[in-house]
Structure formats: C-alpha cells, structure tokens
Amino acid sequence: MKYFNKEWYELMQKQFMTDGITQIPDKQYSDKEIEKLYNKELKKEIERACEDYNTPPDDSILKELISGEIEFNPEEWIFVDEENDTIIEPTSKEQVIANLSREHEEALKEFKNRSPFDENEVIEDFKQSYKAMLEIKEYFPKWVYDEVDNRLLALNFLPKSVLKKLQAEEKEINKKFDKIMKEARKVLNKQNVPEEIQNKLSLHDDRITVFEKQGNNYVMNIENYEDKVIQILFEEAEIIELEELDF
What we know:
Strand content: 5-15%
Oligomer: single chain
Distance between the termini: 19 Å
Radius of gyration: 24 Å
Largest sheet: 3 strands, antiparallel
Order of helices and strands: HEHHEEHHHHEHHEEE
C-alpha cells in the first residue's frame, strides 16, 4: 500500500506515547523512593477500583433513548444472546429499549447481590501488571529505557527533561502521521468511492485471516469483532512491495 504501509503503522503506534505519563523531578531515585511511588500508585488504584465496584450500573443511554435525546438508528445497535450464543440485530427502537432494559435489570440485580469489595484482588492485579510492564522494552524509543529506571516507566513516571524530549519527538511523529493521512485522503477523495463501500472498509483492529492469489486477482478475508468475514477482491492486482511488521 502506498500510504497505509509499515511506516504509517509504526508512526500510528507511537502517537500517544506520553498519554497517561506523570512528570516527576529530574533526579536519581533510590529504591526506597521508588517503593514509595509504587505504594502511592497502588493506593490510588485501590481507591479507583473500590469506587467503580460500588457504582451502580449506568442507565443513561436507556433514558436518553426513551426520551428521544439520542436519535435511533438500528444499524448502531447489536446485542448478544449469551444463552444461545447468537447475535441479535434489532430493527426497531422498541426492541432496543426492551434489550437495554433487560440488561440493566440483570446488571442491577448482580450489583445488589455483589460480595464485599476485595482489595487483595486489586493488589495482585496491580502487582502482575507492574511485573509485565517491567518486561516491556519496545513501547518507548530505546533512548528512554537507557536514561530512565524501568521501574519508573512501569509506574508511568518520567523525569521532566525526559518527558519534554519525548513530547518533542512525539510531536514530530504526529506531524509525519498527519501528512500521510492528508495525502491518503486527498487520493481517496478523488476516487469517488461510494459511502456504502467506505463504511464497509472501516476495518480498524479487524484481523486478516486470508490473503492469497487467485489467477490474476488477490483475495483478502477480514474478520471483524462480530466474527463476520468481509471478503475483498483485488482484480488484476500486483504486489509491488511486501512489508513485514514487527509484532
């Protein structure tokens, strides 16, 4: 692909490196100081989890649909019948309201009958997540791992000077990514592709399950989050470059 290639993909993966990062002063951090930061973040995570656990199920969308605050479009709704393992695609507003009401009643019943909050589960999850983050060495550029204690990175902390440098690098990455997207949209808009086809080709995070040559054509099968398969036929196509992504 001319635009959505390996370079584009790698730029996209690096766009939000500094999201969720907390700035800390430039200094050498002792084991005791890092342990203090760990315990502070763990305490905040326990408090967040406890608040979420004790928050009743939200029914705001149901209320807005009933009141007419949000416009009804049947194509935007889908439900899963877990008992029969089937997909339900409602065709009327009444069907959606009925399904949302049933789901909310079930969620509310589970909420009222929930067991007491167990912070030990949160502590263990936090511990395992922290250990997993310690193993990651690919999320940030190599120079970040060379300059910062990985224990701080695992807790989403960066010293001020490192964060500023990384933000500047991220800004340049965003410029390159936006330039590619602008050029790609310009070419796409000239092709007058029907909106119906464009919508069907919104394939973000879908999986390519088949890509094979059939005569002078190439066939690509893509599986979406609903386990539906979309088949794309490239007629009289030719592969001019094969790029391998590092996963």
